[in-house]
């Protein structure tokens, strides 16, 4: 009973947050909706007896990744809203909605109509003694040691890469119209103006750009 | 002794290569002597091989010498090899003998020509090709020689190629031969398919097992090839035009050797012909007889000295085909040999006359030359008597054999042959009388002596028979004005000053050939078995298929007498019309005959008219349908690519959409297949 | 199999819907940061699926996978945001549609 209620509430939160991410014009609002979704997921993790993961989810995802998102949004000043009314690509919206419905339907059909034939009962790699951290740790350092080491390497590389990528390079801002003709969302900036000081209004008049052919 | 067979074609080849490399340095006349020596050496080698064969028993007179493997293609293996047997050695003997004499003659005839060495280069190459043709031990080596003589014929006919007409004559010869070559090739393929081999030894051995339809097919196709090369109906048109070449060429190629290739081929393949249905040899005989008659009628009305001989050659070749069709292979070979003697003789003689007349070739300008050119006249007269079938000259014996076998096959064919013999006597006598007898028409300006000829050449006004069409394009007429040949006299329009006899290089071959034409009949005298030397000699090659006729001797004598009388009637007719009458009273040549029954003009009208339309239609088909299919495929691909290009919009979101679409498809495929998790 | 009040099919369906929503978001939004967030939604759906199966099949290996996914997602976000920073610093008004020069 409890689980049902928990599931229902968490599901609502998750879906509401997801919809919010999609619909919110302001990126900051979208990020906050994402946080809601992540919390909902964490709750469901707990309901599924994955306590360690729930904690990690909150700490890493909601606490670090989303914060990082917000940092970047604030840094670049792209918190201005995007014009969601215009869609430059012809047919993209209906196609997106249709595909979304289809894939959801398809996946749901798959999971509900098939029977699970995994090798569960035999392996019993999870003893429900509440010590999931220890068991996860044991697996990490025995069966998945290689992946673990590679992942640590990956983290190092990611850090180095991020530092390199985000370095400030000399040079003026690119006037978009110089290099690419007819860009949507075009705005002109003065040279040496590194901050997106010009707060253009919400409607970027997207030029009607048909499918390039 | 037989091992020197390879020398027979090798020596002319060596001469060709030597002259090709060093000819210009050798210059005139050394290049000519070298070429003559090469062919003379080849003749000597042939004599050696001949003596070697004589030493063998009659049944073992077959010697094959393989040089190397030419086409090692699995199941199809062809060697370059030589087959020395009575037939090929006979051919080689007269080919090399006559060729040596003609080379000697050419040293004198081509004196002063700027392309002297080139001429001998081509001549030696020609002799080499012809020898490969007759010595080859399989159809492919023969075909090599076949094509080689065709190519050399082209080179030599258009030797003075600065004149358009000469170049066209060469092309005409080559293209017409090509049509025949198609038949040869298909016959070769058929033979390989049916017998698994194209070597003559294998063909002779395996021909007995051929199905009749296959043998008939091969025979007919070989006939197509022979018709092209040996200038029979309907492909004879190239031979008269080929007179544009220098006279030694006409003598060698178009009288003695190349044109006999068709006869040789059919004789060589006689085992196959024997297996064919009866109508196939009958077709050969009919083609030969009709050609003989057709050409003889045209020869009656020709005024160019070489054209008469050209049509005469076509006619005599018709006789040979008639013989083959009647199963008389030995008679065909006999006539081939005697014809080589007297026709080459007469061509060389006409060359001597042309040389003396300052390159004038029209007989209406000649006359009374026998006192000024005694040797030429005497030898020419020997040739004339031979071809007219006057005994005891060689032509009588060979023609008589043919007529006998023709009578045995069908009296109608015999009658055609007889009429042709009458006409032969007539036109050859006409030629002799116009050229050597009568009154001289060359010692006064042409407008005075031969006004009709002057009208034709546009030197006099009027003349309704102005040259048009083919005659105007006739290369021999043009030669008079445009050949690179140096003129002797003042020029053909003015009086020609003192024609003189030719140098010894030209008269010696004439004398030798006259002697051979006179006594050549001794090869095959029909009296008793011991005098039938050629028959015994060739027996192993043609024996099983030679027609055997058993007729009473009285019939044979009767036919012979009738033939002789026919020839004499022809001669008498010419005496009456040409010897006794003054030039002004002589009958004009009938236009339809002079124009060759309008055969050439009909062909060009057809090819230019409806033929052209057909060719254009085929070209259109090739351009539109076939090329269109290929180009259309390319256009289709390009169009499809252009259409598919539109998916590459460059927008990430569109690509994500496509990705998701793919994922959706996968999911649904999984569902439909009833995936089990 | 654990008998639970909420069968795993529900969790999986929820994950499917979340995944679909994330996909739709990537296709519809133009702002690169929001698109990135939608990708995170999809990753979370996958994580939920894995955890569900871990419980279903009694195998903690599923949770280990989630662990790895989390780590890699973090690294990916780091690098991706670095790229976005370097682009948007020079071209502040750039959207996902501006990267369309490689077109046919």
List the keywords.
heterotrimer; B: 677 residues; mainly alpha; two-stranded antiparallel ribbon; 28 helices; 2 strands; C: 104 residues; 74% helix; elongated
Write the layout of secondary structure elements.
The complex is a heterotrimer of chains A (213), B (677) and C (104).
Chain A: H1 2-23, H2 27-47, H3 51-76, H4 92-113, H5 120-123, H6 132-142, H7 145-165, H8 176-179
Chain B: H1 7-26, H2 30-54, E1 63-73, E2 76-84, H3 86-109, H4 116-135, H5 139-157, H6 164-195, H7 200-206, H8 212-229, H9 238-241, H10 247-256, H11 261-268, H12 270-275, H13 279-299, H14 305-325, H15 329-356, H16 374-388, H17 394-409, H18 411-436, H19 446-449, H20 451-456, H21 469-473, H22 475-482, H23 504-519, H24 533-542, H25 553-579, H26 591-594, H27 599-644, H28 652-672
Antiparallel strand pairs in B: 1-2
Chain C: H1 8-28, H2 32-57, H3 61-90
Summary of the model, kept short:
Chain A is mainly alpha-helical and 213 residues long. In chain A, 62% of the residues lie in helices and 0% in strands.
- Can you tell me the overall shape of chain B? globular
| Oligomer classification | heterotrimer
Number of helix segments of chain B? 28
**Rg of chain A, please?**
23 Å
What is the general shape of chain A? globular
Number of strands of chain B: 2
Indicate the structural class of chain A: mainly alpha
Number of helices of chain A: 8
Q: Outline the low-pLDDT stretches of chain B.
A: 463-491
Structure description:
- Chain A is an all-alpha fold and 213 residues long.
- Chain A is 62% helix and 0% strand.
- Chain A has eight helices and no strands.
- Chain A has helices at 2-23, 27-47, 51-76, 92-113, 120-123, 132-142, 145-165, 176-179.
- In chain A, helix 1 runs antiparallel to helix 2.
- The model of chain A is unreliable at 190-213 (pLDDT under 50).
- Chain B has 677 residues and is mainly alpha-helical.
- Chain B contains 28 helices and two strands.
- Chain B has helices spanning 7-26, 30-54, 86-109, 116-135, 139-157, 164-195, 200-206, 212-229, 238-241, 247-256, 261-268, 270-275, 279-299, 305-325, 329-356, 374-388, 394-409, 411-436, 446-449, 451-456, 469-473, 475-482, 504-519, 533-542, 553-579, 591-594, 599-644, 652-672, and strands at 63-73, 76-84.
- Chain B has a two-stranded antiparallel ribbon.
- In chain B, a hairpin with a 2-residue loop joins strand 1 and strand 2.
- In chain B, helix 10 (247-256) packs antiparallel against helix 15 (329-356), helix 13 packs parallel to helix 18 and helix 17 (394-409) runs antiparallel to helix 18 (411-436).
- Residues 463-491 of chain B have low confidence and may be disordered.
- Chain C has 104 residues and is mainly α.
- Chain C has helices at residues 8-28, 32-57, 61-90.
- In chain C, helix 1 (8-28) runs antiparallel to helix 2 (32-57) and helix 2 packs antiparallel against helix 3.
- The model of chain C has no long low-confidence stretch (mean pLDDT 87).
- Chains in contact: A-B, A-C, B-C.
- Chains A and C meet through helix 1, helix 2, helix 3, helix 4 and helix 5 of A and helix 1, helix 2 and helix 3 of C.
């Amino acid at each position: 009973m409890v689980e049902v209620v928990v599931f229902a509430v968490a599901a609502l939160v998750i879906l509401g947050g997801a919809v919010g991410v999609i619909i919110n014009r302001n990126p900051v609002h979208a990020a906050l909706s994402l946080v809601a979704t992540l919390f909902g997921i964490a709750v469901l993790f707990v309901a599924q007896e994955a306590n360690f993961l729930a904690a990690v989810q909150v700490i890493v995802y909601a606490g670090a990744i989303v914060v990082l998102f917000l940092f970047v949004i604030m840094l670049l000043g792209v918190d201005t809203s995007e014009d969601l009314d215009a869609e430059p690509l012809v047919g993209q919206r209906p196609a997106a909605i249709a595909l979304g419905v289809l894939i959801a339907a398809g996946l749901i059909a798959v999971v509900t109509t098939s029977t699970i034939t995994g090798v569960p009962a035999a392996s019993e790699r999870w003893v429900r003694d509440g010590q999931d951290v220890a068991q996860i740790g044991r697996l990490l350092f025995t069966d998945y040691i290689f992946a673990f080491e590679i992942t640590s390497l990956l983290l190092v590389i990611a850090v180095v890469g991020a530092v390199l990528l985000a370095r400030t390079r000399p040079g003026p801002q690119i006037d978009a119209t110089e290099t690419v003709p007819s860009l949507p969302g075009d705005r002109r900036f003065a040279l040496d103006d590194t901050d997106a000081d010009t707060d253009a209004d919400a409607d970027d008049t997207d030029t009607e750009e048909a499918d390039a052919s | 002794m037989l091992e020197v067979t390879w020398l027979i074609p090798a020596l002319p080849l060596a001469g060709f290569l030597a002259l090709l490399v060093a000819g210009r340095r050798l210059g005139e006349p050394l290049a000519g002597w070298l070429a003559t020596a090469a062919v003379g050496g080849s003749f000597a080698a042939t004599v050696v091989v001949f003596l070697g064969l004589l030493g063998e028993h009659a049944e073992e007179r077959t010697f094959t010498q393989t040089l190397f493997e030419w086409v090692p293609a699995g199941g199809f293996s062809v060697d370059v090899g030589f087959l020395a047997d009575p037939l090929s050695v006979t051919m080689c003997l007269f080919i090399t003998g006559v060729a040596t004499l003609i080379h000697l003659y050419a040293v004198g005839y081509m004196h002063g020509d700027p392309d002297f060495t080139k001429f001998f280069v081509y001549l030696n190459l020609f002799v080499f090709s012809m020898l490969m043709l007759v010595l080859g031990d399989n159809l492919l080596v023969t075909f090599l020689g076949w094509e080689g003589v065709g190519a050399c014929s082209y080179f030599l006919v258009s030797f003075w190629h600065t004149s358009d007409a000469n170049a066209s004559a060469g092309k005409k010869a080559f293209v017409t031969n090509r049509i025949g070559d198609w038949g040869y090739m298909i016959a070769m393929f058929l033979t390989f398919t049916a017998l698994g081999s194209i070597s003559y030894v294998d063909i002779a051995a395996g021909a007995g097992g051929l199905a009749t339809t296959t043998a008939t097919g091969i025979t007919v196709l070989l006939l197509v090839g022979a018709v092209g090369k040996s200038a029979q109906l309907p492909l004879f048109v190239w031979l008269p035009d080929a007179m544009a070449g220098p006279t030694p060429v006409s003598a060698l190629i178009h009288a003695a050797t190349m044109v006999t290739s068709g006869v040789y081929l059919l004789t060589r393949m006689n085992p196959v012909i024997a297996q064919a249905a009866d109508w196939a040899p009958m077709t050969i005989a009919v083609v030969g007889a009709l050609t003989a008659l057709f050409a003889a009628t045209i020869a009656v009305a020709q005024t160019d000295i070489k054209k008469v001989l050209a049509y005469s050659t076509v006619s005599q070749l018709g006789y040979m085909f008639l013989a083959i069709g009647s199963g008389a292979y030995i008679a065909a070979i006999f006539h081939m040999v005697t014809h080589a003697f007297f026709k080459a003789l007469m061509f060389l003689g006409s060359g001597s006359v042309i040389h003396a007349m300052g390159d004038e070739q029209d007989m209406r300008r000649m006359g009374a030359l026998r006192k000024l050119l005694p040797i030429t006249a005497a030898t020419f007269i020997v040739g004339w008597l031979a071809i007219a079938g006057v005994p005891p000259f060689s032509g009588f014996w060979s023609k008589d054999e043919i007529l006998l076998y023709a009578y045995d096959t069908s009296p109608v064919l015999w009658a055609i042959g007889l009429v042709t013999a009458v006409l032969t006597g007539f036109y050859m006598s006409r030629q002799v009388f116009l050229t050597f007898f009568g009154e001289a028409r060359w010692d006064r300006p042409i407008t005075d002596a031969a006004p009709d000829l002057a009208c034709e050449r546009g030197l006099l006004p009027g003349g309704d028979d102005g040259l048009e069409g083919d005659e105007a394009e006739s290369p021999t007429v043009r030669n008079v004005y445009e050949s690179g040949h140096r003129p002797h006299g003042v020029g053909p329009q003015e009086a020609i000053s003192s024609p003189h006899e030719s140098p010894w290089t030209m008269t010696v071959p004439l004398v030798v050939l006259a002697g051979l034409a006179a006594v050549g009949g001794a090869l095959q005298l029909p009296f008793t078995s011991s005098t039938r030397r050629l028959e015994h000699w060739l027996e192993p090659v043609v024996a099983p298929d030679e027609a055997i006729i058993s007729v009473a001797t009285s019939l044979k004598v009767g036919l012979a007498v009738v033939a002789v009388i026919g020839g004499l009637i022809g001669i008498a007719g010419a005496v009456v019309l040409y010897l006794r009458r003054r030039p002004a009273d002589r009958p004009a040549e009938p236009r339809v005959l002079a124009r060759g029954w309008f055969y050439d003009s009909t062909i060009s009208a057809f090819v230019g008219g409806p033929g052209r339309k057909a060719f254009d239609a085929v070209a259109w088909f090739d351009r539109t349908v076939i090329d269109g299919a290929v180009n259309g495929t390319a256009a289709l691909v390009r169009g499809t690519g252009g259409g598919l290009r539109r998916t590459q919009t460059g927008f990430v979101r569109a690509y994500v959409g496509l990705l998701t679409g793919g994922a959706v498809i996968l999911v649904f495929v999984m569902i439909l297949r009833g995936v089990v998790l | 199999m654990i008998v639970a009040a909420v069968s795993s099919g529900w969790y999986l369906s929820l994950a499917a819907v979340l995944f679909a929503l994330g996909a739709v978001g990537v296709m519809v939004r133009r702002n690169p940061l929001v698109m990135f967030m939608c990708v995170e939604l999809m990753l979370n759906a996958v994580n939920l699926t894995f955890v569900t199966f871990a419980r279903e099949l009694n195998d903690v290996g599923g949770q280990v996978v989630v662990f790895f996914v989390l780590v890699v997602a973090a690294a990916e976000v780091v690098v991706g945001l670095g790229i976005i920073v370097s682009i948007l610093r020079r071209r502040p008004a750039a959207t996902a549609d501006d990267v369309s020069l490689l077109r046919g």
